[in-house]
Structure prediction request, 407 residues.
Amino acid sequence: MDSGLAGKAVIVTGGSRGIGRAVVELFSAEGADVTFLFRENTAAAAEGVAAGRAAGRQITAEQVDVRDPQGCAAAVERVADRCGRIDVLVNNAGMVRDNLLGLLEDDDVQAVLDTNIGGVFNVTRAVAPHMIARRAGKIINVSSVAGEKGGRGQTNYAASKGAVNAFTRALAVELAPRRITVNAVAPGVIETDMSQAIRDRAAEEVKSRILLRRFGTPIDVAYAIWFLASRYADYITGEVLHVDGGFKME
Amino acid sequence: MPVDITKDEIMAVYPKVAQTIADALGCDVEQVALNVPLVEGLDAESIDFLDIVFRLERAFKVKIPRGQIVEDARGDLPEAEFEQKGYLTEVGLQRLRDYLSEVQADRFRSPMKVADIPKFFTPETFCKVVVRAMRAVQGDDSRGRASEGTGAPNTDG
Prediction:
């Protein structure tokens, strides 16, 4: 199966670990020229680049906080200058700071919103003109099951991911005339650092609410992103694809 | 505010601006006459203007802030005197007539929405934008060289 990703210039935010790392590995293994953005985990980023290059893959890392619009714009320009174009953007960078509404600090709210939806704006605004000019491109946003289903202690995170879904649908309308597709994937509980706390605290109880009775893995989500980035999804836009094993929240 | 850009300056950048607009709109460069209204004449949409500005920035290696044309037209006029509730004031309309001097003056009729200003843009409008942006770059360069020469800090002033 030819996904059409070989030779494509791809940007993945939050690519040093978790779902982003799986996307970087999967896409680069297909022959894509992948640049991932990371905020602080320099060791993990360097290890990801080194491992990929040892396997003969094209992987580049750019350290930038997606909350910084100028930093994002500069990083995107460097990728565009190096690759001559940007074909695929995966907005994956995100954070959680769960707590009951009454216990959230201002910074817990702001940091989550600024990263999870502000970062999507910052990177997409920098990338979109390149895609518009070429009249081609695929944007995939990583949302969450929390964007549509309520979860205790997740008002900040849920609000940010609901915004990602709305952003996805609105931008799909805006960019469709330029043959750019915009979709999202909404992972459930995935075995990453981000979900470690809930998996430690209530693993069996959470699994009992997943129809497939297991947590997802980063590669489960990466395959869905791969599909939306591939030529097989050329006729899909404005959709939110759930990758959650049939997760039911209460 | 009168536009202090000469015809020679406009014609110097026009061929490249026209080609850039033709590439963005997917039309022949021959269709991009200097004064053709881009919306009515070449079916340009708002997203096309973003594309045109993006391409011009790369073609001429300049920075063109979004909304620059309206800002330039407003000049030193306070925003409240330029527009009110999304409509141009009479003074604002006159500023726009002066700035978009390439457009027939009687096409600007009150009441006029600020959001409708792009309907009047022509290739010449973008030539002016490019000339101004190039001047800004040259100004920055000369300021930079001056400060290097004197050892003075390079400030925004």
